[in-house]
């Protein structure tokens, strides 16, 4: 490492003021020092660099080519140095940084796009990195330090609390009924009023239990309460895939109401009869994050909390 890399910012500031004024007396006055220390500092700087930066005569001071070449880089260097405190303070308060955000596909059909737009408008210094992932994948990402926050899907009041040494905090963002995605050609579509017997008799397309255990168990419990067993035609991980399989006529599917915005040819969404609604499964979406999260995450949590429409406790 050369000595030039160790030159103090104070010396570069003195150089720049002299380069801008081209007068030792006025430069010293602007720097709030006397002229001899300034003269000595410039001489020492030139000695360390091994080049003359100023041409001096009794009547004027002028920049040499070497001095002229340094003016703009030194100006930028000092501007960057002056901004360091502000950058550190902004980062410390969470105003700048990166947010690695996981989300289940269902929240992508709902409020997530608008929340992201609003958050980016409010917090332009925070870069949001999105990753669509099921709840189980997000939990592993938290455990491995690869995610900062995430939207997960579960049965009401059954949000995951974390794994291992990383407990999670949570904010409930929605509770919604599950509805039926039905093949358009199915008799269930032509029925004016669905009956329990029709629903329970149909083969089911459902997600594996491992990706949302509490929600899977809520669907299973609905069937057990009515002395029926799940007849699983196919398991699929993503809601888009589940709806596509419904459109192919493989069976019906229970999906959160927000999924009804996903329109596919061959699929009709049907809500349960009023008499069955209270006993039917519901889905809750929560924003979860490690309890030891930093200020960037807390800013996002606060933003979502302000954006959430309050819903009744289930």
What is the strand and helix layout of this fold?
Elements: H1 9-21, H2 24-31, H3 35-49, E1 54-56, E2 61-63, H4 65-92, E3 97-103, H5 105-109, H6 112-122, E4 126-132, H7 135-143, E5 149-154, E6 162-163, E7 166-183, H8 187-190, H9 196-201, E8 204-206, H10 213-225, E9 232-235, H11 239-247, E10 253-256, E11 267-270, H12 274-277, E12 282-290, H13 295-307
Parallel strand pairs: 3-4, 3-5, 8-9
Antiparallel strand pairs: 1-2, 5-12, 6-7, 7-10, 7-11, 7-12
Describe the structure.
With 314 residues, this protein is of the alpha/beta class. Helix content is 44%, strand content 22%. Strand 6 and strand 7 form a beta hairpin. Helix 1 packs across helix 2 and helix 1 crosses helix 4. The relative contact order is 0.14. The mean pLDDT is 88.
Summed up:
The protein is α/β, with parallel strands linked by helices and about 325 residues long. The chain folds into three domains: about 5-90, Arc Repressor Mutant, subunit A (Orthogonal Bundle), CATH 1.10.10.10; about 95-175 and about 290-305, Periplasmic binding protein-like II (D-Maltodextrin-Binding Protein, domain 2); about 175-285, Periplasmic binding protein-like II (D-Maltodextrin-Binding Protein, domain 2, 3-Layer(aba) Sandwich).
């Amino acid at each position: 490492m050369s000595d030039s890399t160790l030159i103090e910012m104070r010396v570069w500031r003195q150089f720049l003021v002299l380069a801008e004024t081209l007068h030792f007396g006025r430069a010293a006055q602007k720097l709030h020092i006397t002229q001899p220390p300034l003269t000595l500092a410039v001489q020492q700087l030139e000695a360390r660099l091994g080049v003359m930066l100023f041409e001096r005569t009794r009547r004027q001071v002028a920049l040499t080519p070497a001095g002229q070449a340094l003016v703009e880089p030194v100006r930028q260097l000092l501007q960057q140095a002056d901004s360091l405190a502000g950058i550190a303070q902004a980062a410390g308060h969470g105003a700048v940084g990166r947010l690695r955000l996981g989300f289940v596909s269902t929240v992508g059909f709902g409020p997530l796009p608008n929340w992201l737009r609003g958050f980016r408008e409010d917090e332009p210094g925070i870069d949001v990195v999105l990753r669509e992932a099921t709840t189980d994948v997000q939990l592993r990402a938290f455990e491995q330090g690869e995610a900062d926050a995430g939207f997960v899907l579960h049965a009401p009041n059954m949000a995951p609390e974390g794994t291992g040494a990383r407990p999670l905090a949570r904010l409930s963002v929605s509770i919604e009924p599950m509805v039926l995605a039905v093949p358009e050609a199915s008799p269930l579509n032509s029925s004016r009023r669905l009956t329990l017997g029709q629903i329970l008799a149909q083969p089911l397309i459902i997600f594996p239990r491992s990706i949302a255990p509490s929600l899977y168990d809520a669907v299973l419990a609905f069937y057990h309460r009515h002395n029926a067993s799940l007849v699983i035609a196919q398991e699929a991980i993503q809601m888009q895939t589940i709806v596509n399989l419904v459109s192919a006529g493989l069976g019906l599917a229970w999906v959160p109401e927000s999924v009804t915005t996903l329109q596919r040819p061959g699929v009709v969404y049907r809500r349960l009869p009023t008499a069955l609604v209270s006993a039917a499964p519901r889905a809750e979406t929560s924003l979860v994050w490690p309890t030891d999260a930093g200020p960037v995450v807390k800013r996002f949590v606060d933003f979502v909390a302000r954006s959430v429409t309050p819903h009744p406790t289930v």
